Amino acid sequence: MSDTYDAIILGAGAAGLFCARVAALRGRRVLVLDHAEKPGKKILISGGGRCNFTNIDTLPERYLSNNKHFAKSALSRFTPRDFLDLVEAHGIAWHEKTLGQLFCDGSAKQIVEMLLEECARGDVTVHCGDAVASVERSDEGYTVRYGAAQAQAPSLVIATGGPSIPKMGATGFAYDLARQFGLKVVQPRPALVPLTLPADEALFRELSGVATEVVVTCGKTAFREAALFTHRGLSGPAILQISSYWQRGDTVHIDFLPGQESGWLKAAKRARPRVALRKVLGEALPDRLAQALAERLALTGELGNLSDKALDTAEAQLARWPFVPDGSEGFAKAEVTAGGIDTAGLSSKTMEARKVPGLYAIGEAVDVTGWLGGYNFQWAWASGFAAGEAI
Ligand SMILES: Cc1cc2nc3c(=O)[nH]c(=O)nc-3n(C[C@H](O)[C@H](O)[C@H](O)COP(=O)(O)OP(=O)(O)OC[C@H]3O[C@@H](n4cnc5c(N)ncnc54)[C@H](O)[C@@H]3O)c2cc1C
């Protein structure tokens, strides 16, 4: 016995639930399947439990993809304001934290409840707790076997996300399915992830727990946010952001004192020749970090006894301190997966596979990865909306 629907959506995460809601409110009969015991698990842990559900400064340039134009269409047709309207219609209080990042005042649970209420309004069937055993395509459409049941629909949406945080139930299932239907997959890699430092950077690892605002640069990309030293290397928003652009072998440069005017150390020397570099650094940086940097710079004694040239060199080093990470903390700690289902095989308007009618891919499963700060949920909503309007 097979139940029939207009669309089957695999994955009851952000993208899948939103897509289901959009399609159902257009009158489609929708089944959402998830192997986890409950829907929206990643939403629940997102944004430290408060869900950074969008970013009002969303721009296509703030997404990584092999095709940097791909996300434009969907992002322009479902904007942060559109999602905010829904949040407000459900009476969910929110606030802007920083850099356009919008969070719930209360709990991420409110976002999951909102999505489920919207799905219920459209009579969406959400079935959790059974793994998808197989997906087959025939003239009648797609047949999905799960648990002891099976369902059939002319449209199938892949919304099973990427493999980041496997202990939350994340898998590479989307890629297996995409390949089964002849779609290509851009090599998935951990993104928004802490970077690890080799043993010879032990001095910095002793700074575990120290955070400071920096500008971090990798190639042509730079972010100004907080960096955090950890017992394994570097973390904090600035590092998570740059990790998405970092590739093995790349050097990451940190400006520990962004905003200081050129020549500030020489100016300090003129103003306070009796003061040690260690003390001057300690006035601008956390104490332990100032200590570690002063040791590495190896400039001891009073500023007045140091040459201008030595101070210029120290200033330049502090503004472009090189780190060569030996890796990242991997999918276990990555907030998202970069890479994924190749956008070359998908329509940017509908998310439908160009050569496989009725097959769609949305959300993190696709090779579109946002910056830290609500961008990835906005992609989930926008791509879910695009497919939800089409199925
Ligand atoms: C700790 C953490 C915090 C985050 N915080 C934020 C934030 O504040 N703001 C932001 O924008 N982004 C945040 N993200 C990223 C964001 O959670 C994801 O980008 C987003 O959830 C992707 O939505 P999705 O629907 O594509 O995938 P997911 O939300 O991962 O949903 C995929 C669903 O598919 C299911 N699934 C997987 N494999 C199978 C299978 N084989 N069979 C059936 N079902 C399957 C999973 O159980 C899951 O429910 C965070 C991520 C993490 C890990």
Automatic annotation (TrEMBL):
Keywords on record: FAD, Flavoprotein
Domain RsdA/BaiN/AoA(So)-like insert: 189-336
Residues making up the signal peptide according to the UniProt record: none
RsdA/BaiN/AoA(So)-like Rossmann fold-like domain: residues covered: 6-389
Cofactor: FAD
PANTHER family: OS12G0638800 PROTEIN
Protein name: NAD(P)/FAD-dependent oxidoreductase
Species this protein is from: Novosphingobium mangrovi
Upper classification of the organism: Bacteria, Pseudomonadati, Pseudomonadota, Alphaproteobacteria, Sphingomonadales
